[in-house]
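Human: If only I could read backbone structure tokens as easily as an amino acid sequence. Take your time, and here it is.
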Amino acid sequence: MHRKLNRIYYEVKNPTLTWDDIGGLEVSKQHVKEMVSLPLMKKEQLARHQLTIPSGVLIWGPLGVGITMLAEAAATEARVSYVYVSGQEMLGNPDELRQAFHDARHEAPCVLYISDTEWLAPRAGSDYEWGPGNFRGKPPTFADRELTEVFVREIDGIQDRDDIMLVGSAYRVDVVDQAIIKEKSRFNRKIFVAPTTGKDREGMLKIYVDRIPTLGGEIDITRLAEITEGFVGWDIENLCKRAVLNAVARDSDEVRMEDFTAAAGQVEPWISTDMNEKYWEIYRDDCPHHYAF
């Protein structure tokens, strides 16, 4: 790990997040460990077994569940640098995008994580609707063709490097230009982070609830997970903030279970019923062999 570099559009740093910092998502964690961490940690052993490592891994799923955290935790486990590139911020900045890839080559070994690939490489003619009138999460703008071409060229330019693990994210895999997915030398492996389960939400709740220093009485995490269907990480963070505000509103020095249950009705879940159904439909219709090592 050479240095820490903060820029407007991307960041190079020594990663600090660990798997324990991420609530729930046990299945996704295991897939990321296998496809991202392991190739960096044991590439010689994999080569001896003639097992081809992924050229790039696209992690896709709902916004707010912790996909960016998964990528950083993988870099932490592998003890390599972490290069984070904001796809949103790169719009209109091809030179910065080229520089980010240049720095990744300099920082190797590293995890090169590119968020919001659907902004950088949108699929022409995509239908972003979850259900009638629901376009939640659709990017407000997209890269022009020039920037998409720069993105593709830069990806192709690092494919001879086995010390750079390319990782991308998208909130829907079906709205990403298939040229960067179906080409086996680009993002040729995928990981689906599904809408949160009750167990996922329990893990997330434990992390956020434990940060509140003024808890009073028993907080039933399992019950809270049951009544927060459709919540993602940022919803659960908001739930905990609302619970504290509820306690303050009733002039209490303690945050109690009643404050959390009230807060559950005050926070709108990010994942609606039609979004949940659509996520699983997209996953079922996708090519299954891309989800195996």
